[in-house]
Amino acid sequence: MNYQTEPITMWFDRRLVLRMSPIHGIGTFATHDIDAGELLMLVTGGLIVRAEDRQPDKLQLAAEMYNQETLAENVFIVTPKLFHYYINHSCEPNAIDISRCANSTQYVALRQIRANEEVTADYYDETTLEVCLCKSPRCRWSIVSH
Ligand SMILES: [Zn+2]
User: Fold this and answer.
1) Measured torsion, CA atoms of residues 90, 94, 100, 103, in degrees rounded to the nearest 10
2) Considering only the top CATH level, what class is 4-121?
3) pLDDT at 128
């Protein structure tokens, strides 16, 4: 076995829940008001795997249960999918990931987040983002009509 585990730390504010999202699939929502600047969640570490480990006779992780980030070519870090995975994109977000490395996630509230509001971030991921449904007047992904 040539993969290893970095110690995993996961902390989530207790005012966060997962619900069906009008933006996309499942989203992270606030149950109570959250002030600007408050830490929402912190995830560091994970299981480090290489492409060659992902063979059928070696390591098999259920894709729907784990979030995978790329550390280097053919090297990935994997954590269980929780709130940090279910942050939807918005062009006018209320949260930001202030971590500086691929094996860490640290979302902070950009402004006050109201009870029952969805937590969103302005990450750029054109591989999964097809059409933006954030409904912001400043949406960069608006469909141009023919
Ligand atoms: Zn948008």
Assistant:
1) -70
2) mainly beta
3) 53
- Summarised one tens digit per residue, pLDDT across range 28-46 is 999 999 999 999 999 998 8
Task: Give the distance (Å) from ligand 1 centre to CA of residue 126.
Answer: 12
Q: Which residue ranges make up each domain of the chain?
A: 4-121
Separation of 116 CA from ligand 1 center, angstroms?
19
CA of residue 118 to ligand 1 center, whole Å: 14
Task: Report the chain's C-alpha Rg in angstroms.
Answer: 17
Compute the CA torsion angle 25, 31, 104, 43 (nearest 10 deg).
Answer: -110
What is the 107 CA–ligand 1 centroid distance (Å)?
A: 19
In the chain, how many H helices and how many E strands?
A: 0, 10
